[in-house]
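Supplementary Methods, section 5.1.

A reviewer requested that the exact input to the structure prediction be made available. We therefore reproduce it here, unchanged from the version used in the analyses.
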Amino acid sequence: MRSGFLLFVFTLAPAGVISAQTSNDLLVQRLVGQPVVRVNGSVLTQRDLLREMFSIFPYARTHNGFPKAMEADIRKGALQMIEFEELVYQEALRRRLTLAPEKLERAQADFRKQFSTEADYQSYLKTEVNGSLDTLRKGIRRSLLIDQMLKTEVADRAVVTVAGAKAFYDQNPDRFRIPESYTIQTISILPPTNATPAQMKEAANRASVALRQAGATKGYSDFGLLAEKTSDDDFRVNMGDHKAVERGKLPPPIAQALLTMQPGQISGLIRVDQAYTIVRLNNHIAAGMQSFNDVKDSLRKQLEKEKSEQLRQALNKRLRAAAKVEEL
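The structure derived from this sequence is encoded token-by-token as follows.
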């Protein structure tokens, strides 16, 4: 279940930050029970908001709260989500959607399995639903109805067939063109900014030594380990690996050198502005088109994701148009 009851409760941490830990503190219970928004008369509380905030940023559970720079945006996104889900739930009730009793029983049993011990389960019931199994059951039912509505209005309508994906592929050829590119590793020796002649000479000497060492390497890993030890550029932390780089985005001296190289070959010293660079060519990727079979599955997933987001936004807009939402 995406919405509804989540498996954590709240306590007040130092400096007034809400974190996910067990507590019976009455002050905290009042805090998380504060109203934050009224949707067509139904009140959602700080507890509902915090559940969603932790869903958006779960790391807050282990980092003593939300990063100050991100907290406002997380809260805004969470508030919009709980408003949306309440509107979806109310629409499900308006349509008189029903649930099979066995589905509700199964969902309740699955929820119970999240708790490793009976004591944890009873603690959750006491803190989150005031010990009421009926309240828990209503919460699970609400979650299932929201899921059912979203399946009907979003998930089912967002399905993209193979034929639909193929039509998109045929109509958008530029999206699937592969530019000529090279997968390379580099070792770069960088003299200081505004280097003196002596510093330039020292850099040239270092580059010459690095070139001899690079020439003695036996493959990708050897060159990469040398890059980690020797190179001054940022790619050294990834074994000097640039992955695939389009030819047009390479510095002209490097692109020119690669024209005469074969995969596995190592260049001489290439001067790029003030830097000395050594390049290992791992692969030359010719310009072409990705085949539909190669992109079919990922394309369908991407199109379905985009369509789902469009449908969710349209549903949210439609439901809000006829609703009264009051942020408190």
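The longest helix spans residues 292-321. These observations are discussed further in the main text.
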